[in-house]
Design brief:
Blueprint: H1 3-6, E1 9-10, E2 16-20, E3 23-27, E4 32-36, E5 41-45, E6 49-54, H2 63-79, E7 82-89, E8 94-98, E9 101-105, E10 112-115, E11 120-123, E12 129-134, H3 137-149, E13 160-163
Antiparallel strand pairs: 1-6, 2-3, 3-4, 5-6, 7-12, 7-13, 8-9, 9-10, 11-12
Length: about 180
Amino acid sequence: MSRIAKNPIKISKEVECSFKDGIFSAKGKLGQMEISVNSNFTINIEEDEVKVLPLKEITNDPNWGTTRAIIANTINGVTNGFTKTLELNGTGYRASVTGSKLKLELGYSHDINFEIPTEVKIECPKQNLIKLTSINKEKLGAAAAKIRSYRKPEPFKGKGIKYSDEYIFRKEGKKK
């Protein structure tokens, strides 16, 4: 029995939600998002809350809580948005935004040009900071993970790209 899925999602007056033909759409101050909902569930929209209800009396379907979480993220995205911050640690590691590309200098013999996804905004307040913002949590996380995969942080010196809230477990080097 899912405890998360039973909880209603609170919405503010600024958000307009609708559910039609298996597609849930939410419109807020930051934009509009549409997601397709699993056919086993229906969305009940009231004045200040949204509930995800199963069509059949299924109490052990694992997609129930997942569907509720995705809808909650959609509503949160159009009202507040999501951000992730990446840090570049290493000598000569730099990032800069030019047009629709993120240029990364990560100690390789060549620069890496990362094509910025359409729903994600990237800015570099400093040369060693990358700030990603979006209303879509899934695309934001995928873009941040792709950028991080170009040079993951290594445990000896801590060089690489890491999330700002991530802790790198440091190892001790060789001993004589």
